[in-house]
Design goal:
Helix content is 74%, strand content 2%. It is an all-alpha fold and 355 residues long. It has one domain. The chain has a two-stranded antiparallel sheet. Helix 2 packs antiparallel against helix 3, helix 2 packs parallel to helix 10 and helix 8 packs antiparallel against helix 9. The longest helix is centred in the C-terminal third of the chain and has 34 residues. The chain is globular, with a radius of gyration of 21 Å. The protein starts with a helix and ends with a strand. The relative contact order is 0.09.
């Protein structure tokens, strides 16, 4: 993580804590939904963007990601103000910059996907997270405007914005990063399941709202929950085995971390894996609420338990663990010899540390 990214994440975290201390929302109240939404633009999105390998998408995508970095903090701060105001034109106008950031990121994700032709699937999973994020940005604008597409209740519009910041962005990001460290057919299958499950859930919820019955929503919730359980399994496997990437071998494999950092990463991976598994079991049960006697599993309870576990114990912890792992790999990476001068390629006359 660069110094700029660290500053933006740290400043965003301070702002978020100040907002929570000021509003002091109850976990079962709508105010906690707003707090969870604001955590993503202020902290999780910039921290997640710092984990994206920008060398793998071409210069156009890299430029778009740089633009998003530049706009992220002011747009996130304006979004905080937007949610402090009543629903209306002023709040809508202040939410638009964050929507613009998500549009830029979505275009960057599409460019990266096209550049690499959706390969490898682990990186495509991360890119799809960039693409899905725009629905969260649009949902935030709809909430501040008071829009009710398809006659959804206002709380559903807000929850849609939250869902696509966490399930839409963080889940594919964490899945792709974990799959990069544990390559293989099982990890690739998890990536495919997550990428397919996110839009499938959206289609299922809309189908229920339009009167087509709850069967598709139930199936979609089950699909995404099973795929996310696979993501949880990848993180638990990382916790059990440590940061030791499997085959295929890389030209400059980074040695495993030592001492406290490895144990810290293992602990964080275990926590986020367990939290994700717990929260996605709840999500699957919520999808089956039409067929099972689960009257206790209502939105206030889901926001207090499922939402909190997803945001604080999975999303934040997974991003911190991935950041520690990446910083350790950069420190451990060996120097490469770069040829400089008239001697031509292959003459390692000057050694420049790999960036």
């Amino acid at each position: 993580m660069t110094n700029s990214a660290f500053f933006r994440c740290f400043f965003g975290a301070v702002v978020w804590l100040a907002v929570v201390a000021w509003r002091h929302p109850a976990l079962h109240a709508v105010g906690w939904d707003v707090a969870l939404l604001l955590l993503a633009p202020l902290v999780l999105v910039p921290a997640g963007l710092a984990l994206v390998d920008r060398s793998r998408g071409g210069p156009a995508a890299a430029s778009l990601l740089f633009l998003a970095d530049y706009l992220q903090l002011p747009a996130a701060l304006l979004l905080v103000v937007a949610f402090a105001l009543p629903v209306g034109p002023a709040a809508t106008f202040l939410a638009l910059p964050w929507c613009l950031v998500t549009i830029v990121l979505s275009i960057a994700g599409l460019v990266r996907l096209v550049q690499r032709r959706f390969r490898p699937i682990e990186e495509a999973c991360i890119d799809c997270g960039l693409v899905f994020l725009v629905i969260g940005g649009v949902g935030a604008v709809w909430d501040r405007y008071g829009a009710r597409p398809l006659a959804f209740e206002p709380v559903i519009i807000l929850l849609t914005a939250i869902h696509f910041h966490y399930a839409g962005f963080v889940l594919p990001l964490a899945t792709g990063l974990a799959a990069n460290r544990l390559p293989g057919p099982a990890a690739r299958a998890v990536c495919v399941g997550v990428v397919a499950g996110i839009p499938l859930v959206a289609v299922g919820i809309n189908a229920t709202q339009l009167g087509f019955g709850p069967a598709l929503e139930c199936f979609a919730a089950t699909w995404l929950s099973v795929a996310a359980l696979g993501t949880a399994g990848l993180h638990v496997q990382l916790a059990a085995s440590g940061d030791r990437p499997r085959a295929p071998a890389t030209p400059h494999p980074s040695p495993p971390p030592h001492g406290g950092r490895e144990w810290l990463m293992r602990a964080l991976w275990a926590v986020c894996g367990a939290a994700l598994a717990f929260s996605m079991v709840l999500a699957a049960l919520y999808g089956w609420r039409f067929y099972l006697p689960l009257s206790w599993l209502e939105i206030p309870w889901m926001r207090a338990v499922h939402g909190t576990a997803n945001a604080l114990l999975f999303s934040a912890v997974a991003i911190v663990a991935a950041g520690i792992a990446q910083s350790g790999a950069r420190v451990a990476r060996p120097e490469r010899a770069w040829s400089i001068g008239a001697a031509g390629a292959g003459s390692p006359s000057v050694k420049v540390p790999a960036l």
